[in-house]
Design a protein that fits this description.
alpha+beta
């Protein structure tokens, strides 16, 4: 609800560009889950993958070290 309702509303209020914030949740919904990305990072040769979730879970920052 936060990302699909509140973020577009807040973005529209602050920027005045409703369309710019309407596509954002839709585009993010098409991203693979954070856990899938973490596995892809590991399979690409990185170690110690850690996922930090921000923005009420709408953002995932991946941190890893190269082998």
């Amino acid at each position: 609800i936060y990302f699909h309702r509140w973020v577009p509303w807040i973005g529209r209020q602050l920027s005045g560009h409703a369309e710019a914030y309407r596509w954002l949740p839709q585009s993010v919904d098409q991203f693979p889950p954070a856990e899938t990305i973490a596995r892809q990072i590991e399979s690409a040769g990185f170690d110690g993958v850690v996922v930090h979730r921000l923005g009420f879970g709408t953002i995932a920052v991946h941190v890893a070290c190269r082998k």
